Amino acid sequence: MAVTGSAPPAATVAHEGILRRQAARESAARTYARALPIVPVRARGLTIEGADGRRYLDCLSGAGTLALGHNHPVVLRAIRAVLDSGAPLHVLDLATPVKDDFVTELFATLPRPLADRARIQFCGPAGTDAVEAALSLVRTATGRRGLLAFTGAYHGMTAGALNASGGADDVRVARLPYPQDYRCPFGVGGPRSAELAARWTEALLDDPKSGVREPAGMILEPVQGEGGVLPAPDDWLRRMRDITAARGIPLIADEVQTGVGRTGAFWAVEHSGIVPDVMVMSKAIGGSLPLAVVVYHEDLDVWPPGAHAGTFRGNQLAMAAGAATLAHVREHGLAERAGLLGARMVGELQGLAAAHPCIGDVRGRGLMIGVELVDPEAEDTTAPGPPPAAPALALAVQRACLHRGLIVELGGRHSSVVRLLPPLTLTDEQASAVLDRLADAIGAAARAHRPESTRP
PANTHER family this protein is in (predicted)? Predict the structure, then answer.
């Protein structure tokens, strides 16, 4: 199944020229551009059209930023209204009607116990800026420096966020096991894994010889996204809330990718019923434009003026687009829709796994779905448990998907998890098309990677 649309010669030349100049002029750190050699020029909803005239179903959605897909009418209307009004586009942290509308709409979506006593800090425009602000907040409020974070976490690319993500060596960060079933760190899986992870955390905090100083806070993702689409068990999240509350440790929920309906609830913490002390938000809250905030309990609001700032924290277009997005998701029940449709897609993918031994696990919550690819032929008697990850196969599946007009992302500790993050506006028919193309891509990649001796 090839991508739709034909590429006129002139369009192909322009497309290839842009890609060639990008490779020559941009840094070696570029990521998505390497795996997805396309040049988007138009987009609407789920669909992207490239400069070469080909069309793709976008299940990357700006790494989860596009809750309503590309160029949704309510977002465009909100942006045009600000542009046509003559309002300033950049105002630092001054009060404006646009900001007031955004904060009002955002607070209406929060867990009620937090919303009733919440404060909000506008940060720099990226999620990592909001993480840095949250870490600064709890350290200021508690007077402590240490941090509890989890293996497999991803919180951003700035210094503090990298420390929390395990990307730097900071002795102030204590790493805790994040429970999961398929590759359980304790080798047991299921509820027992969550229970052991909780006991480990309690023992670490209560043992005076553990070497872990009293922390300023605990930061966690209700679903680890870059870590491989690992939903936190609800019982475990409740235990983390109880453990931190009993010890006076602020709990930070990183909802940068899980928020705004992505997991089947407006905020992923709602599945477990917990109320964190701090919530970090970005991506979808800006309606496709850069915006990041920290929302926290008023008791933590001990910052002096100027303790945390950011030049681009007053983006009026992003606040208008974000308020429109939040309202649309809330008014049209898109979170609930994501939960139902995501469960159906996971079920169909689990059925696909029965026919493909290279699919080790299918998991997710709402429209945040992961398919872990493995090498079922590899034998390692020294490592009991699931087969080893297959990053080369996952990369082949991603490329096969792109050839079939489907854009997907890879994640997980070994980049062996194919991730789906479609917009919440995904229709049943579009979901079927996505699954069909993914199934075809997995089948083709698996056949190409099969050892010669096992091919028919």
Answer: DIAMINOBUTYRATE--2-OXOGLUTARATE AMINOTRANSFERASE (PTHR43552:SF1)
For 48, phi then psi, to 5°, come to: -115, 140
Per-chain mean pLDDT for the chain: 91
Identify whether the C-beta of residue 392 lies closer than 8 Å to the C-beta of residue 371.
no
User: For 208-355, where are the E strands, in sequence order?
Assistant: 215-220, 223-224, 230-231, 251-254, 278-281, 293-297
Q: How far apart, in whole angstroms, are the C-alpha atoms of residue 109 and residue 103? A: 10
Rounded Cα gap, residues 351 and 437, in angstroms:
15
DSSP class of 331: H
pLDDT of 31: 86
Q: What are the structure tokens assigned to 46, written together?
A: 């789920």
User: In a 3-state reduction of DSSP, which class is residue 259?
Assistant: coil
The closest alpha carbon to 141, from 306, 309, 279, 297, belongs to 297
Q: What are phi and psi of 440, to 5 degrees?
A: -65, -40
Q: Quick one: average pLDDT of 9-26? A: 84
**CB-count exposure of residue 235 (10 Å: 0-12, 13-18, 19+):** middle
Contact 295, 279 (CB under 8 A): yes
Distance of CA 353 to the CA centre of its chain: 24
Three-state SS at 151: coil
What is d(CA 144, CA 287) in angstroms, rounded to the nearest whole number? 35
Domains recognised in the chain with CATH numbers: 9-64+334-454 (3.90.1150.10), 73-331 (3.40.640.10)
Give the three-state DSSP class for 380. Answer: coil
Residue type, 353: A
